[in-house]
Amino acid sequence: MKRSSLLQQAAATKQTLFDEGVLDDQFLQLEDIYGDPKSLEELITWSFGESAKNIGTIEQLLERASIDFIEVGKALHKLKGTSASIGAKNVLMKVNEMTEQCKTNTVDGRCKASLQGLKNEQNDLKEKLTIYLQMKRQAQPGGAA
């Protein structure tokens, strides 16, 4: 595919991510700061890894017989920071929803449902952002598939 066509496709994909509320302006700032798609991709990959760790921690904490909601809150706070740092708008909203659900210090269906919604949103972000970053990488001069 021609470079100009790839650039147009990448731009359209990015616009869709904003239109769907997946990303916010923080992501644009990261693109400006990092410039090189490879560097941005490294940051995003790190962010996904940290998010997966935090989500795993939250899952483990919620499965315990005696749940330490302070620790759940700390893990949610870390996840919030990681999500906000890359402009993951929908994920950030799900983290905030789960934080509110867990403030009651009871694990009922709402708290676990919030976790599932958060995981779904994180997976959606990862899938869509991976596609976008791949397009950006391919559109670079000498870009690899």
From TrEMBL:
Record bears the keyword Phosphoprotein: yes
Residues modified as Phosphohistidine: 77
Domain HPt: 36-132
One MF annotation (Gene Ontology) recorded for this entry: protein histidine kinase binding
Cited InterPro entries: AHP1-5/YPD1, HPT_dom_sf, Sig_transdc_His_kin_Hpt_dom
CC terms in the record's Gene Ontology section: cytosol; nucleus
Subcellular localization(s) per the UniProt record: Cytoplasm, Cytosol; Nucleus
UniProt record, GO biological process: cytokinin-activated signaling pathway; phosphorelay signal transduction system
Pfam families per record: Hpt
Keywords annotated in UniProt: Cytokinin signaling pathway, Phosphoprotein, Two-component regulatory system
Superkingdom as given in the UniProt entry: Eukaryota
Domains (record comment): Histidine-containing phosphotransfer domain (HPt) contains an active histidine that mediates the phosphotransfer.
Function: Functions as a two-component phosphorelay mediators between cytokinin sensor histidine kinases and response regulators (B-type ARRs). Plays an important role in propagating cytokinin signal transduction.
Protein name per the record: Histidine-containing phosphotransfer protein
Organism: Punica granatum
Gene name of the encoded protein: LOC116199301
